[in-house]
Amino acid sequence: MVRAVVFDVGETLIDETRIWSRWADRLGVTRFTMLGVLGGMAALDRSFAEAFELIRPGFDVEAEQEAWRLDDPEGLRVNFDAGDLYPDVRPGLAALRDLGYELIIAGNQPPQAYDALAAMDLPVDAVYTSDGWGVAKPDPAFFAKVVAVSGREAGEILYVGDRLDNDVLPARRAGMRTALIRRGPWGYLHAARPEAAHADHVVDGFPDLVAALGRR
């Protein structure tokens, strides 16, 4: 029986459209181009970094982020705030809490993401990031940390994310139940793959997830 639900962040809780749109503006390409290239990387199982390299060969992401910080110290830049939450997240989390589930956020995120998530005052029991743990998905050690902080058996945990490679498949190998959420380019593309059958649930959003877990 599932007793704890653990959530990825990007394109599970957070709509990254504004982040990638700001990147497009920064790089001097249209937003359609930026989002299209990212979709291509998702379809080809390639990384975000390769999207930058394709748009601007030799691009140094870390150096550009630092220059951007100096240019716009008060701006969101590559960060997010409560305005980037998907609209169904807060009510969905509240509904899952009412059903008695322990709720945890744990995803691949930089240091500042913890403060941003904590400031949203979401109805969850804990927030963790890969930077805080010093290990990132899909490393098995990340999912071992999820089990450890939950205090549950792996089979009592449902991990929710938008990717097969980073979320569903490694969480399943760690003994967890899994849900694939069809949001963002990876979510839609991965839900159409045969491997999506390995997920316990494939959902279109939090209402579907609440309905599935309510039945259990």
TrEMBL record:
InterPro entries recorded: HAD-like_sf (IPR036412), HAD-SF_hydro_IA (IPR006439), HAD_sf (IPR023214), S-2-haloacid_dehalogenase (IPR051540)
SUPFAM superfamilies per UniProt: HAD-like (SSF56784)
Alphabetized GO MF terms: hydrolase activity
Organism superkingdom: Bacteria
Signal peptide as annotated in the record: none
Keywords: Hydrolase
Name this polypeptide is given: Haloacid dehalogenase
Organism, as annotated: Planobispora siamensis
